[in-house]
């Protein structure tokens, strides 16, 4: 009994260790030595940077830029700005102003570039985490580095880009137009997709990662978190960072460091100074100092490789790596060992066919039921709590409670199912099935998802447990528990990270991982007589967490509801309408919409990351909003083509102009504000999937100038939307302030006064 209790205690300890080893538990103070990173000193900068929203085109945008430039100059760096127009593959167009600083090295090798961005997400985010945290990490890290009084071998360039949130525009003009870009050998990029939790390291490279991972390991950061699976998943997501431009456009490698917990704060008005996790900022600083010290002295010309490494973090050893060439041999060897152990077990009558088959039925049942609960359990909760659908990124304020609930239910299912096949002497027979399924997974991974091939490592320890069960009738449960440590240490954080980073729709990944890890620990649990009691205990715990989540399912001041409102004025027919993206109206939006129109939807007009459509509209009173001046300056026929020059000049303070044109139209050439757009370049304007031609993010009310060449017989019609983010401040509309339990919905055009106008070119 004592040994079993110790085994349970060790399992709890391993889970705790797996989390504590990936993020600092203490933060550095304001009086830390001058040559050390201080989170408290970094926070002084962050408080200043995140006072206001500072998206491109906002009043605070230039103030934040001036502050950062001043701080870089105070550090003794050569500073400058860079500006120019850029467009991305979706037709997002702006004129970013980048901030650059340079520290000269003692040699003439490749440059180490420190990267982040200073613009916040339009229009309500304060940008404290994304990416004020990156700005202050670099400022404080460089200050500490310079106070060590040593000259680096490599030049160090600081690039704090603009318009990252609009389409990586600042990185685009630096990589493709700035002379400093040609000598960059490595990029360290600091980002955020939430406001807390450990920071994940992601490699970005077009070829092999071997030398990059070797360099990272030699740099020896104290709390490394990353594995080759994470980057494989990252590449599948619709999320890029500035580092993507370096990799895709200039074949320059780098590391991303990004945290994703408290995902509900991402791009919202909750991304504030007070909500940034201080331990997270400490973690970012620990990465920067270790890698800055190492790569400022390393040969950055030797980082390219054709070889890849499988890598994963684990406590004590920090980062474990091995070459891709080992993947197949390790898998084949594991299969051979498994077959030999099964054959040996049958020969020595330590395993029997009937218990083995029961073990297969038990594991398969537990896995299928847990996966179904992960999928349909969350769908049921969405049906019961439709308000969760208003959080577009899919991670609710009580998301961690739901993770705990689903994990407990999955453990309960495993205990209850395996209680049916309990016999102390059946331990060896029961582990046959989990090992078989793990080997099937490892086989698929070896050929389809090589980055996840470290999954085979815990399998080897499972095979070792299998061997012990075959050789000993009463094996030591503590020894068997220690053999389960690799599975617990590697996969416990993933149980939480998948639904946190990818949304609660990925709770199925948590429940599946719980069953898989339970299977590898069946050598321990097989000897627990009262698994039914454990099952009921975890069911009660799961129910407790579900009930607890219910009591935090509403929206409050601490958990505000994201909502949206637009005023759209049609300048051609002098009509107006209110519109919202919200599927569920609340006490604020209900002032503007008649609930009888709840089924009324209009076409998805404005760009949205999650393809969110406008749900409700209602006729509104027309107010005197100044309309843009739309002029056609030239309309010249040359042969079979017609050259048309159009200028759209705002007559009020605006932030965004969207231009729509039917996808059937042919544009032989396109020039935007004197920037010539190549059809075979990044933005393929004749191969669009939607009618949106471009979105122009306006600075200083600079007009939008278009020069197009079209077939002379083509009748072309443009639909123009001019938007300002001042709906709540516009005295003509008299929109009341949101309640304290609400915030503007992110990822959509929101709180905007929009003027719609058609332009026909006949």
UniProtKB/TrEMBL annotation:
It comes from the Bacteria. One of its GO terms (cellular component) is vacuolar membrane. Coiled coil: none annotated. Keywords: Glycoprotein, Membrane, Transmembrane, Transmembrane helix, Vacuole. InterPro entries: M28_fam (IPR045175), Peptidase_M28 (IPR007484). May be involved in vacuolar sorting and osmoregulation. This is Vacuolar membrane protease. It comes from Jejuia pallidilutea.
């Amino acid at each position: 009994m004592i040994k079993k209790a110790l085994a349970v205690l060790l399992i709890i300890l391993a889970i705790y260790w797996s989390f504590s080893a990936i993020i600092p538990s203490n933060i550095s103070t304001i009086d830390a030595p001058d040559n050390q990173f201080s989170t408290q000193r970094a926070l002084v900068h962050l408080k200043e940077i995140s006072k206001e929203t500072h998206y491109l085109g906002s009043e605070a945008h230039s103030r934040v830029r001036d502050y950062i430039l001043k701080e870089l100059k105070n550090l003794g760096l050569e500073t400058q700005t860079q500006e120019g127009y850029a467009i991305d593959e979706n037709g997002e167009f702006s004129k970013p102003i980048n901030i650059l600083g340079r520290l000269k090295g003692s040699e003439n090798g490749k440059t180490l570039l420190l990267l982040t961005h200073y613009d916040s997400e339009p229009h309500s985010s304060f940008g404290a985490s994304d990416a004020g945290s990156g700005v202050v990490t670099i400022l404080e890290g460089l200050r500490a580095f310079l106070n060590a009084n040593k000259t680096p071998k490599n030049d160090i360039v600081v690039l704090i880009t603009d318009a990252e949130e609009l389409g990586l525009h600042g990185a685009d003009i630096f990589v493709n137009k700035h002379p400093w870009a040609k000598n960059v050998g490595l990029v360290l990029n600091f980002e955020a997709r939430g406001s807390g939790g450990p920071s994940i390291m992601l490699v970005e490279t077009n070829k092999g990662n071997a030398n990059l991972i070797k360099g990272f390991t030699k740099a020896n950061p104290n709390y490394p978190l990353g594995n080759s699976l994470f980057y494989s998943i990252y590449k599948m997501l619709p999320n890029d960072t500035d580092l993507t431009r370096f990799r895709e456009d200039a074949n320059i490698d780098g590391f991303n460091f990004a945290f994703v917990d408290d995902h509900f704060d991402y791009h919202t008005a909750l991304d504030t100074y007070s909500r940034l996790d201080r331990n997270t900022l400490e973690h970012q600083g620990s990465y920067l100092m270790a890698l800055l010290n190492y790569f400022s002295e390393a040969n950055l010309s030797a980082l390219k490789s054709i070889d890849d490494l499988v890598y994963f973090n684990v406590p004590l050893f920090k980062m474990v790596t091995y070459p891709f060439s080992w993947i197949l041999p390790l898998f084949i060897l594991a299969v051979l060992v498994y077959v030999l152990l099964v054959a040996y077990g049958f020969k020595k009558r330590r395993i029997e066919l009937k218990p083995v088959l029961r073990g297969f039925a038990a594991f398969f049942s537990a896995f299928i039921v847990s996966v179904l609960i992960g999928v349909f359990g969350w769908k049921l909760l969405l049906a019961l709590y439709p308000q969760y659908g208003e959080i577009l990124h899919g991670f609710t304020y009580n998301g961690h409670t739901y993770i705990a609930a689903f994990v407990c239910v999955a453990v309960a299912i495993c205990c209850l199912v395996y209680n049916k096949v309990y016999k102390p002497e059946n331990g060896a027979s029961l582990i046959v099935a989990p090992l078989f399924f793990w080997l099937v997974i490892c086989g698929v991974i070896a050929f389809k998802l090589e980055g996840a091939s470290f999954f085979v490592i815990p399998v080897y320890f499972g095979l070792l447990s299998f061997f012990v069960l075959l050789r000993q009738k009463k094996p030591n449960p503590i020894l068997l528990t220690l053999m389960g440590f690799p599975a617990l240490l590697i996969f416990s954080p993933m149980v939480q990270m998948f639904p946190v980073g990818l949304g609660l729709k990925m709770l199925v990944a948590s429940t599946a991982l719980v069953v898989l890890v339970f299977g590898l620990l069946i050598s321990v649990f097989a000897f627990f007589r009262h698994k039914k009691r454990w099952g009921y205990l975890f069911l009660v715990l799961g129910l407790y967490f579900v009930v607890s989540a219910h009591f935090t399912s509403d929206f409050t001041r601490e958990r505000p509801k994201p909502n949206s409102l637009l005023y759209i004025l049609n300048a051609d027919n002098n009509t107006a309408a209110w519109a919202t993206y919200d599927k569920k109206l609340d006490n604020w939006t209900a002032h503007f919409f008649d609930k009888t129109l709840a089924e009324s939807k209009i076409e998805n007009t404005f760009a949205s990351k999650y393809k969110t459509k406008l749900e409700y509209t209602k006729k509104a009173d027309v107010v005197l909003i100044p309309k843009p001046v739309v002029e056609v300056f030239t309309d010249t026929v040359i042969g079979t083509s017609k050259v048309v020059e159009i200028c759209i000049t705002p007559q009020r303070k605006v932030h965004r102009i969207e231009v729509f044109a039917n996808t059937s139209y042919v544009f032989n050439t396109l020039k935007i504000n004197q920037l010539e757009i190549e059809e075979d370049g990044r933005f393929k304007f004749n191969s669009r999937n939607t009618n949106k031609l471009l979105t122009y993010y306006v600075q200083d009310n600079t007009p939008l100038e278009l020069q197009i060449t079209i077939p002379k017989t083509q009748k072309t019609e443009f639909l123009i939307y001019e938007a300002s983010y001042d709906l709540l401040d516009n005295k003509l509309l008299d929109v009341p302030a949101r309640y304290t339990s609400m915030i503007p919905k992110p990822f959509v055009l929101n709180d905007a006064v929009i003027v719609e106008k058609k332009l026909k070119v006949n």
